[in-house]
Amino acid sequence: MNEQEAPVVNEQRTAGWRALFVALEGGEAAGKSTQAAMLAETLGAVLTREPGGTALGRAIRALVLDGGDCDVRTEALLMAADRAEHLATVVRPALRDGRDVVTDRSSGSFWAYQGWGRSLGLDIAREIDRFATQGLEPDVFVLLDASASVRRARREAASDRMERESVEFHERVAEGFRCLAAADPARWCVVDGTGAAAEVHTRVLAAVARVRSGEPAAEPAPDPDDLRRHAD
User: Fold this and answer.
1) Among residues 219, 217, 180, 218, which one has the least CA distance to residue 4?
2) N or C: which end of the chain has fewer CB atoms below 10 A?
3) What is the spatial distance between Cα 204 and Cα 197, in angstroms, rounded to a whole number?
4) E-strand spans in 26-167?
5) Domains of the chain with CATH codes
């Protein structure tokens, strides 16, 4: 895997769109859904998710997460199809209307889960993803980092196929996320996902505030109240 591959130029930046596209990323039971909902409420943003942010996506989600086993290439292509439809019908229209978008998972999860977890390789995962996204990627990836023991405890009631994967699989995914964050600190921020939801939310807001101000997401952040004032 080429961990240092340069990120794709974001379509949103080159097109001059002013709205912000944020992805909450991380392993199973990291708290992404909770934090995505809280962030979207604070920003007054469109809240969505992958897979499953569209009618077609919900059908794909059922196939991938609730169906039986399938070939790793089939899974990757289904996930890419979900992203293509999601960006075309939900994300792009919202951004063009000047609305911020917060998504529970996006390209980052695809690179980590398919590239590392399924061992397809980052180059192949990125190539498939480029076709699906046509250059539109999140402005900031917020990676929620919770310890393996915390995530295992939260996954005790695991119900879908991805959650039931082996410990080794989840370790590969976690390594993928770490490599992605290290390779692109301008857009990736690792946020401590432990503690009360409100505490984690404050850390997430701080990371997003830095992107609003044009600073790298991974560096120490300013007072999150700045972001709230901007959102108002």
Assistant:
1) 180
2) C
3) 10
4) 46-49, 101-104, 140-145
5) 11-231 (3.40.50.300)
